[in-house]
Amino acid sequence: MHRTEVPFAKGHGAENDFLVLPDPDGRLDLPAAEVVRLCDRRAGIGADGVLRAVRCTATPEASAEEAEWFMDYRNADGSLGAMCGNGLRVMARYLVDTGLTPPGTLTIATRAGTRQVRVPHRSPDFQGEVTVGMGRPRLPGPDGIDVTVAERRWPALHVDMGNPHAVVFVDDLAHAGDLRIAPIVDPAGAYPHGVTVEFVIPCGPAHLALRVYERGVGETRACGTGACAAVAAALSWGRQSAAAHYTVDLPGGRLRIAVLADGAMELTGPAEILARGTVNLGRRAAA
Predict the structure, then answer these.
(1) DSSP summary character for residue 26
(2) What is the pLDDT of residues 198-208, one digit of tens each?
(3) pLDDT, tens digit, 9 for 90 and up, residues 265-287
(4) How many C-beta neighbours within 10 Å does residue 167 have?
(5) Alpha carbon distance 71, 111 (integer Å)
(6) CA separation (Å) from 249 to 28, 48, 208, 262?
(7) For the chain, percent helix, then strand, then coil, each to nearest 5?
(8) What is the pTM of this model?
(9) Are residues 107 and 154 in the same domain?
């Protein structure tokens, strides 16, 4: 099969890793199978997802006039993703450090709406902290959601961060099991398109730790929207007292959450580009 070389970058935010495909003119059409191949950790490059960076003027999905760039996020199983806090930071780091946009405050469009991202400077080594405005968490219900792993069952809170989350508080993060398969979420119809599940323990005032099973991916080393959802659930259920700043520890590293006066959240954490090169895409993707 004919294949065409296109540029890519590999990056991560707290070890939540992504492939960035720069596509300013909107020429790439990524079939789900191509995304799965790219994200495969044996037969592909390996990643938790793909970030296609496309100018808003080149894609009908981006209707925001104030944004120059659109984050076309794909989960590792090829499904579309609406929002990804770690991915958005990695993409912004790439755009700034490759000179595609100047440092400062960027407005980037996503399927969950526009987000403000602050990249304070161009980094000579393609790394450094980046902050993204995540918006206000929504607690739309329904009540009565439960999460089951093996013989354990917990009540869950539905938190919407532009993507759906079911947050549970556990006594020990090991109780989540090996997370090689998705936890059972009841009722079955509560999340018809799947859900990301957070297993959370309080570690002290304004300090949480968690593990995450991401829909369309599996267990990931970190999740930005999941960290925000965990803080929102902790506040809603009284597991944490109200504070302006929270620390969230995940297997891949530490993220910081600022809760603003209006309830909106800002997510700050590492964003690092590890490698750049070219990758072969199939004829359809590189059309």
Answers:
(1) -
(2) 999 999 999 99
(3) 999 999 999 999 999 997 555 55
(4) 29
(5) 8
(6) 36, 19, 6, 24
(7) 15, 45, 40
(8) 0.95
(9) no
Q: Is 204 annotated as a binding residue?
A: no
Domain around 122:
3-133+271-282
**266 assigned to a ligand binding site:** no
Cis omega (within 30 of 0) on the bond before 120? Answer: no
Q: Which of 1-15, 76-90, 248-262 has the lowest mean pLDDT?
A: 1-15
**CB contact at 8 A, 95 and 53:** yes
Give the total number of structural domains in the chain. Answer: 2
Alpha-carbon distance 114 to 166, whole Å?
Answer: 23
How many whole angstroms separate alpha carbon 160 and alpha carbon 225? 9
Q: Is 224 annotated in some ligand binding site?
A: yes
Whether 244 maps to a domain, the answer reads yes
Q: Do the annotations mark residue 214 as ligand-binding? A: yes
Tokens 């790219």 belong to residue:
38
Same-domain status, 119 and 151: no
| Cα 53 to Cα 25, 146, 222, distances in angstroms | 9, 36, 21
Show which residues are catalytic: 84, 223
Is position 280 annotated in a ligand binding site?
A: no
